[in-house]
Here is the input.
Amino acid sequence: MIYVAKRLNNTRVHSNQGIWWLLAISAGLILTTESVVIGAGLFAVVATVTASAITPLATLVILLILAPMRTLILTEANTQLPIDIGQLLLIGLFGFWLGTIIIRKHTIMSSLRWSPVYIPLLIFVVVISISAFGSLSLGVWFNEWLKWIQILILVTTIVSFVRGEQWIWLIFGMIVAGTSNALIGIYEFFGGSGALHLLINNRFFRAFGTFGQPNPFGAFMGMLAPLGIMLTIGYTLRLFHKSRTGQRIVYTDFISTIFFALSTGVIILGLVVSWSRGAWLGFIASSFIILILLPQKLWQSVLLATGMITVGLLIATSSFIPTSIVSRIQSSTQEIFNIHDVRGVEITSENFAVLERLAHWQAALNMATNKPWLGVGIGNYEVAYDN
Here is the structure.
């Protein structure tokens, strides 16, 4: 990785000859291989290495897009990778980042930058580190703790090389990942999965994207949808501002606005077809908060909040929303306000989903009651559940 980065860095001033040589070689590989799939895969690898050697940001964007497809790659790929695609790209990101530091003759410490995002992350890492003293299984605790150390290193890496307007590429990668997953989910909703246990009203199927389960897929859609909404609003306002002030509007302004608007619509549709009540409620709450914080003046926020609540109540009491969605949301509110001891309750096919949630909530409350200070250890919920 470091060698490739050095070669590309040395040839950049000569019309990026290294890039063209690598792409030409990869194109030749496609022509010489018997399988188009293998050739295309080799081309993708060479193109990824080439782009990543120019800037680690390319690896990060690819990581954001491919990491959510881990389950799909594991189940559908003919050749199994030694580690999952997310971990593989994460190692590549660290490698190209270190290579960039070396060829620029910097030190790691001089490349690091402070960011406020470290504060909550470091606090959380400290708390879960202390939870090791109350952990029921140190092995399980260590595996979960190691994930958060990886996240801390990943955040440190991103903050060190993503600067200025480059942040938009991070957002672009996340939106592309969400859109591609949403399209897969929409296909599954109309019968693409054929999973009978996810059947809705004997007609449609709950979408799960590439996650294997509808709820994490819905959570993924629910986190990206508010982000997409704000990007659409931001780019639209920028277009109006440039038009009003007489600034030159370039074609990329239109393309970006249309891309984020269409992608956000697809992601919201993916959220709906996930049929995840928690994701729906989370999306409604988060969208409400970010929209009322959008105005710069308090009275505007109050007026906007009042209007949104009024419109929401009118829509909820009208026949605009399908009955199946209304009953789905109502059942979730009934569960929240109907918490009771579920031990000994007879389990049926009708009450299984509700009892399962209540049992998990009850177990979590009992764990917190029995070990209020140190808890059972990060990642040890399943270990402690039977007790």
Summary: DSSP finds 17 helices and two strands in the chain.
